[in-house]
Write the structure tokens for this entry.
Amino acid sequence: MIYGVSNIIDHYFAVGDWNADKLTEYFQIATNNYYLRPSLILLIPIIGILTNKRIGWILIQSYFYYLITNLAFPATHIDFTDNTLIIINIIGFSLILLIIVLMNKKKISNLVYGIKKSELINKNIIASVIGISITIILVMIKGNRI
């Protein structure tokens, strides 16, 4: 968050309109650039951690599904001769998948978040739809700016 705000301030001093209202100019820079996007996406699991209910579990899971789908989009453009990049993607995908599997264990989901084993599939579907939707929305936003 601090890094994003720092980039907005630097952007303002570099190319900002000095005659306009500062607050309006900062808001325009924040909405037209990607400086705060990582901070806003990181709020999803943080809110989930602070909420020890079913919605918290869904938010945390949706963030991990977002990470998997966000990792899958650039994987379609991987140069198959670059073995280190392939290994890094496989390790990242495996670690995220391991976290998802651990969150779906009966003890963790029932003890901390109060989700029964029979409800896990429904909650996973909701979380995956949210995570995939976030990825698709961000891809669409990036596609419109290029």
